[in-house]
From TrEMBL:
<keyword id="KW-0808">Transferase</keyword>
<protein>
    <submittedName>
        <fullName>L-histidine N(Alpha)-methyltransferase</fullName>
        <ecNumber>2.1.1.44</ecNumber>
    </submittedName>
</protein>
<keyword id="KW-0489">Methyltransferase</keyword>
<feature type="domain" description="Histidine-specific methyltransferase SAM-dependent">
    <location>
        <begin position="18"/>
        <end position="317"/>
    </location>
</feature>
<dbReference type="InterPro" id="IPR035094">
    <property type="entry name" value="EgtD"/>
</dbReference>
<dbReference type="GO" id="GO:0032259">
    <property type="term" value="P:methylation"/>
</dbReference>
<dbReference type="InterPro" id="IPR019257">
    <property type="entry name" value="MeTrfase_dom"/>
</dbReference>
<dbReference type="InterPro" id="IPR017804">
    <property type="entry name" value="MeTrfase_EgtD-like"/>
</dbReference>
<dbReference type="GO" id="GO:0052706">
    <property type="term" value="F:L-histidine N(alpha)-methyltransferase activity"/>
</dbReference>
<dbReference type="Pfam" id="PF10017">
    <property type="entry name" value="Methyltransf_33"/>
</dbReference>
<dbReference type="InterPro" id="IPR029063">
    <property type="entry name" value="SAM-dependent_MTases_sf"/>
</dbReference>
<dbReference type="InterPro" id="IPR051128">
    <property type="entry name" value="EgtD_Methyltrsf_superfamily"/>
</dbReference>
Amino acid sequence: MLKQELEDGEHGLADPNFRADVLNGLAASPRAIPARWFYDRRGSELFEAITDLPEYYPTRTETALLMQVGPQLGALAAPNAAVVEFGSGSSTKTPILLRAIHPSAYVPIDISGEFLRHSARELSKDFPGLPVLPVEADFLRPVPLPEEVSGLPKLGFFPGSTIGNMQAFHAVNLLRAMRDWLGEGARLLIGMDRVKSPDILIPAYDDAQGVTAAFNLNLLERINRELAGTIPVDAFRHRAIWNPDAARIEMHLEAQRDLDFTVEGRPFAMRAGESIHTENSHKYGPNGARMLLRAGGWTPIAEWTDPQDWFALMLCEA
Ligand code: AVI
């Protein structure tokens, strides 16, 4: 996951990209702010809490799948492969993969350096003989991988259906960047959430305890905190809707009354019922998933789903 934890904003310096995305997004029609800005420290904690919710099936379904297919993965991955994870190590999934395939090195890549180094240190404790080589980088701007893994075959790992948070155009660009990064002969293990009934999807993004609502609303708190905003957070309501044409869950923050506020001194007015679009979470059927991967330069060679066909793990080769 692209965690923004411990960024400069936490210390009083707003990220200029955050500032630009918020000011442009609030002025746009329809209003929209990219989901990557959810993940300040509080947002990351709330996301962790979401992954434990009874309604949020993706994390536990993917984790169970990984445990189940571990032995097959072990047989499919090159014996001396280096695992390159996009995101700095999902707390429970990474060790399952590492135990299954016994890689010769583990390279977590994340944009948030401090979070990255922290999770790398934690992981090293559990895998004392494994070289853990963190790389601080933006997924879309590949930097060279560590010298130590240059001659080794790579297995990319991109769990969590994070690819679903991107529009297809950006998802394809990301998959291509990963392919260039990992090089000839690489493989990619990617988690993709499946299209399913809105009766399952909506509660997963609008849970009874209101954790997802707090996660969504925290974006407004973050704007107030880091960009001197005066947004009346209580006047907004979390909304999760299924958009069947785009096969995605959309999260919005809906104004409950007419309101005015400022962000860094810039005035904004919203009418009751108007909303800010904060996230897309695309879901893929089997054909859509395979087509997306192929468009990104990857050939699917194996896939596994749970008995309810809610979530898929796809293994591809470059
Ligand atoms: C990180 N990402 C895959 C989550 C998802 O399911 O789209 C983010 C999330 N948003 C609300 N709940 C979880």
